[in-house]
Amino acid sequence: MHWADVLAEELLKKQTKHVLATGITPSGPIHIGNMREILTTDAVYRCLIEKGGDAEFIYICDDYDPLRKVYPHLPSSYQQYVGKPLSEIPCPCGKHTSYADHYLVSFLGSLHTIGVNPRVYRASEMYCRGDYNESIQIALENTTKIRNILETLSGRKMPKDWLPYNVKCETCGRLSTTHPSLYEFPNVEYTCDCGHDGEVDIRKSGQGKLPWRVDWPARWRMLGVTFEPCGKDHATVGGTRETGAKISEEVYRYPPPGLLVYEFILLKGMGAMHSSKGTAVSGEDMLRMTPPEVLRFLIMRNQPNRHIVFDSGLGLLTLVDEYDKEEGVYFGKEAEIKGMKEFKKIYELSQPYHIQKKMPLHLPYRHLVTLNQIAKTWSELKEILMRTGQLPKKLTKEDEEHLRQRAEHVRYWLDTFAPDEVKFEVKETLPDITLTEEQRTMLSIFKGKIPDLSWEPEAIHNAIYELSEQTKIPIKTAFSAIYQILLGQERGPRAGFFLSNLSKQFVLKRVTEAVK
RNA sequence: GGGCCUGUAGCUCAGCUAGGUAGAGCAUCUGGCUUUUAACCAGGUGGCCAAGGGUUCGAAUCCCUUCAGGCCCGCCA
To answer: Which nucleotides of B are covered by protein (CB under 7 A)?
Structure first.
């Protein structure tokens, strides 16, 4: 059974109604780990629905969290906002209503692309609307209990007059610089590093926030959460997962949800992804270079508790090939490979939206890498494919859209992470190169042959071989001459294939210029 | 100090949530193909499943111990 089915069945044993939650703080651009949290939840959600469960998928945007520091992606002027809730900090680009919104909007866009559309809650709204008021009061009244749980389980020492409540300073608006000192219903007294001392009435909303370790369990009860994945960073002994479960049970009297721990996604050769460290491959990059169904495939085929190594180089091409292979097997066009388990379920879960009735058109992904460097736009690319008979005459809308999307992803990959060895550029004019005498001879014979040559990969390839024999120059040298006059480099994509995708006139013209 | 993950062919890994003859891709070798961005086709070689113990008629798979590597936590979240 697929892991998502196993989890769904475990949940259904308890009850049929479920609320699956994910919570991600919009403190910066989406990263790959977030993707895993979202997609893991989505997989369980889909399985629950499929098995007749009554499930809801929610996303809680922790936009009331204070800005921790000036992250690498921020201008240094953001120093003044450190400590303020993300929802009350101006947008870095100026187009959104707040800092949090800036990242939330693109995050939700990314989710939509990969086929995830949860119900969105914003912590800032929940706090300001008063949803948390009761939870805050419960927490404050159980200060000793919470304090004991935290000190016992996590082994950390809390300050003497610690309270499970972070006041937002009425003067400077910061959450992280205040020190609550005394709670006497309904007031919390506090001092702030900005010099302001005061007290807030917790019956009024939006005056402060529960610390994370308390906020999490409070929210479970409030929203009826029954399942939530968490990264392994939370899963350590004495970590938030453990203290959260205890606080949920003993303070909020709510059975803690199933807290699935997922492993991190590592980058090949770079280690773990981390939201605040500014890593080499952002989630955005990953989404733009990986087709959505392939990204889902990557998550779905791996058990959540195993780490995944994402290779943004040639490994990406292999991943897409593997996806296509699996697709072929799913539609019965290719034989199943021994040891390929759960391929059916994995394929289904990999689809962002619906499953196609017919198998999508396959074009080798590596080939798209070549074509994308010959054609500049999708319409040019399509024209080449049509002209060379690589596409069926009647191209369905779905297939065209599928190919166009893949072409876009390939293009982004080429612009960013593709290794140099797969890159080339068809030069607009004859590159500044020096050909040997024998190469010139070969090319001039080739020039004579072109007009009558059937412009197909094999024919072209054979013609070059004949030339090599005729002129007695090594085949390598012959190929090299062709790459040099077109690309200005020694090597290139498979010659026959490559040339057939260029127009005959263009090649003839270039060869003519080269032997002048 | 603690937690999680990993250890299966030369390399990358699947198989471990069904205990029942050890799998794939790459590499290598053979044959075919006039042989290029990690070419294609057919076939072959290749494994004490990290080590040890236990459960079992039967263990890569379940349990315990050990070893090695990776990541995370021990500020905040």
So the answer is: 2-6, 12-18, 23-24, 34-38, 70-77
Q: How many CA atoms lie within 13 Å of A84's alpha carbon, on the beta-carbon side?
A: 19
- Collapsing DSSP to helix, strand or coil, A261 comes out as strand
Q: Which residues, 6+ apart, have CB-to-CB distance to A264 below 8 Å?
A: A33, A36, A231, A232, A272, A273, A307, A308
Strand A265-267 versus strand A261-262 pairing type:
unpaired
Cβ atoms < 10 Å from Cβ of A173 = 17
**What is the model's pLDDT at position A207?**
92
More confident residue, A505 or A155: A505
Q: Closest by alpha carbon to A287, among A298, A278, A276?
A: A298
Residues in contact with A370: Cβ distance below 8 Å, sequence separation at least 6, in sequence order:
A493, A497, A498, A501
Which residues does A91 contact at the CB level (< 8 Å), separation at least 6? A97, A98, A99, A101, A102
Residue A262, nucleotide of least CA–C1' distance: B4
DSSP string, A23-53: EE--SSS--HHHHHHHHHHHHHHHHHHHTT-
b/e per residue, A359-377, with b = 16+ CB within 10 A?
A: ebbbbebbbbbbbbbbbee
Burial class (CB in 10 A: 0-12, 13-18, 19+), A13: exposed
Please report, for residues A115, A259, A292, A454, the alpha-carbon distance to residue A354 in angstroms, rounded to integers and kept in the order given. 9, 28, 13, 42
Could you tell me the pTM of the whole model? 0.89
- The alpha carbon torsion through A425, A426, A428, A431 (nearest 10 deg) reads 80
Res. A273 pLDDT band, cuts 50 70 90 = very low
In tens, the pLDDT along A342-395 reads 778 888 888 999 888 888 888 878 888 888 888 888 888 888 888 777 777 778
State the nucleotide closest to A209 in CA–C1' terms: B77
Distance in Å from B32's C1' to A459's CA comes to: 20
CA separation for the pair A51, A288 (Å, rounded):
33
Six token digits for residue A459: 């024919």
Q: What integer pLDDT is reported at residue A309 of this predicted model?
A: 76
pLDDT band at A338 (very low <50, low <70, confident <90, very high): low
Rounded-to-integer distance, Cα A473 and Cα A256, Å:
75
